[in-house]
Task: structure prediction
Amino acid sequence: MTLRVEILFQQPIYEKNMEQFKLDFFRKDHEMVNINFITLSKKKSDDAFISFCLKYKIQKNERTNIFNIIQNEGHYINFVNAEDAEFNLGLLINNLNIRILPTNLYVCWDSFYNIDVFKYDDVIKYFDYIWYPKVDDIIIFDYSFNFCLMIRHDGIIYALN
Result:
């Protein structure tokens, strides 16, 4: 039995979101399945950043420095690296002791200017198509910011929670 899922995609306002080449690789490997996501509007991305700042007590004028702030104030996850062949994002999230797993995960590609929203299961199952080592620094969080992970281009992970 094959399941065909339609892709939900809204044109981004900025250039940095899930790049087309990633989608092309995904479609090549998974002909009968599409990864579902939407790109938040500028306003919704701005709103997400404001909520993030309130939750983690970060100054709103620090937007362009957000990756450094997470690295400096977050907890270094020293038992795993996203570049490892056995890396499993789902297990990492389970280790954070999240009581209720979210339905969706938000993937921030830059300083909260471009955010794609994926189904939780899609991010877990297809993480290798979403995050690429050497080129991507991303922030992954749930709607209520119960957890926030920054995964650097070198696979090093920091958590805020």
User: Anything to note?
Assistant: Confidence is low (pLDDT under 50) at residues 1-16. The chain has one domain: 35-160.
